[in-house]
Amino acid sequence: MHGDLSLLFLCLAPFLVLASPSGKLMSRFIPQHPPKHYSWPLAPRITIISMFTPEEGAWLVPLDLKYNISVPGLSMLYPHVHCDDKGWICQMTTGESEINAAASTTALFFSPYFDFTSTYFMIVGIAGGNPYYTTTGSAANWTTGYFGFGTTAPDMYPGMSNWYGTEVFELNTNLLARVMDVVKDVKLNDTADAAAFAPANLPPTIVQCDVATSDVWFSGAMLSEAMGNITEIWTNGTGKYCTTAEEDNATLESAVRAHLAGMVDYSRFILLRTVSDFDRQPPNVTAYDSLTGPQGGFEVAITNIFSCAFRGCRLELGSI
């Protein structure tokens, strides 16, 4: 996971003045070379948010997302939103790291090309995994040497003056419960290479837990224990850190701001991560060798993105 770089650019697009249903005039940008059979602004039933090319590739062909909509403000590497023939399912890719996730999703949520007020969003990607599933150890010690900003010991809760307001996000638990009920029996893919690294050779399963977001790609038992301790403290002991990622808090902060502006409905966001590697080394392996060596999970994690998330898509396209 990488350091932040700041990038500012301006995008201009032609616009048309349209009459709203109430008769009042309003400005609406219309994409250049838009699919002719779409009505604007487009109102997808579900939008999938990916972070980089392999995650994006899990969706484009299986869902026939062949219509490209160029949206000003998206990543220069991923300038298009891809949609199906009816405009019901769309997919966008943010680019990796928190700064790309925040910038790209903000551009998307506030784009006048779309009406997202009734859209369900699925943030779906691969992640590092905690083989113990829950946070490890007690925070009341100095085994890692890490403690939070504005504190003097690992077991201290930061004062309110030291909160940025983007540390912890909670999604709609009712929606989560319904999606979990639908996907719990999905048969996930596995390989012999991936199974060789799994704790006790357990097969892939679907679990409900929490994601730790960091722009720094941390690996090894000491750093992972420190992040687990922080998760436990910041959530008053309720957080179950089981996967690691580098974009989710940034995407969710953009979603909160867009919700407050009336552009999206935050209660319609769901987050799914498939594990491609483990965040710490197994016994008798160094943290460095665990980080740099193969773990056999990347391809199967990419495959399971569609296997699991598409069941959730079908639910969201139905009668949630």
UniProtKB/TrEMBL annotation:
Keywords: Signal
Record has Signal as a keyword: yes
Signal peptide segment: 1-19
Top-level lineage group: Eukaryota
Entry GO terms, CC: endoplasmic reticulum
A UniProt-annotated Pfam family: NUP
InterPro entries: Pur_nuclsid_perm (IPR009486)
GO BP annotations listed: transmembrane transport
Name of the featured protein: Purine nucleoside permease
Organism of provenance: Dacryopinax primogenitus (strain DJM 731)
Lineage: Eukaryota, Fungi, Dikarya, Basidiomycota, Agaricomycotina
